[in-house]
Amino acid sequence: MSECCATSRSHKLDCPYCQQPCSAVGVETLCYHLKQPWQWQANEHVSYYFCDHKDCAVIYFSDKGETWQQAELRTHVGVKQPEPDALVCYCFGVHYAEANVAARDYVIAQTKSGSCACTTHNPSGRCCLKDFPR
């Protein structure tokens, strides 16, 4: 797999709204998805997290109480609402309706060749393959 999909952000924190455990994301991920990242000041002493729970309005939050919802992002978060036209793979533009074996095999091959950018393009900051329907 490519380097971006080999890294793991295992640090977790419960979402302040749904109380479910959520994985850490890097500042680069948050900056990529915010509508106006230039109006936000990242803090190196703050940790940021992605909430993928479908019934929760929060998408990102910090350990200092900041939260971000869909209206504050430029990216529609497919795992929150996995509709046919929502993206499952942000690197190669694969929608849930297209997420078949051929598309998955293509994404696997591209990931192995290092052609993915999941750490920034996927709102979760993790490999898109994790979100493909089984």
Number of helices: 4
List low-confidence stretches: none
User: H/E order of the elements?
Assistant: HEEHEEEEEHH
Q: Main beta sheet, described?
A: 5 strands, antiparallel
Give Rg in angstroms: 14 Å
What is the CATH topology? Answer: N-terminal domain of TfIIb
Q: Class, according to the CATH hierarchy?
A: Mainly Beta
What is the straight-line distance between the termini? 19 Å
Percent of residues in helices:
10-25%
Q: What fraction of the residues are assigned to beta strands by DSSP?
A: 15-25%
User: From the coordinates shown, what is the CATH architecture?
Assistant: Single Sheet
Shape: globular
Query: How many separate structural domains?
Result: 1
How many strands appear in the DSSP assignment?
Answer: 7
Mean pLDDT: 91
